[in-house]
Amino acid sequence: MLATLVDTGALLKTVAAAFVAGVGVTLIFSLAILGATRFAELNRDGRPAAAASFGALAVVALAAAAAAVTIGIIVMTKK
Question: Which residues of 34-51 are buried (b: 16+ CB within 10 A; e: fewer)?
């Protein structure tokens, strides 16, 4: 009777997708924070090449996090 009330396959897919998306977006955003902080530290220490690399990491990771959130909103509104 429980199997007819709850589609466990769809429920498990949803839980797995939410876990992957949550961990993925968190990881990407943490890379953006890492890039921003290392950029500030290296810029202050007078190492412009390394600072530029971490600045690029921060920008790319922040754009990826924003894209992931945008895609999530699009997917949720289409269903």
Answer: ebbebbeebeeeeeeeeb
If residue 55 lies in a helix (H) or strand (E), which one and from where to where?
helix 48-78
Most confident range, picked from 8-12, 31-35, 69-73, 74-78? 31-35
Residue 8: inside a domain: no
Q: What is the pLDDT of residue 3?
A: 54
Which domain, by its residues, includes 40? Answer: 19-78
Q: What CA–CA distance (Å, rounded) separates 28 from 65?
A: 6
Q: For the chain, how many structural domains are there in total?
A: 1
Residue 51 CA to residue 35 CA, distance in Å, equals 9
Report the helix count and the strand count for the chain, using DSSP H and E. Answer: 3, 0
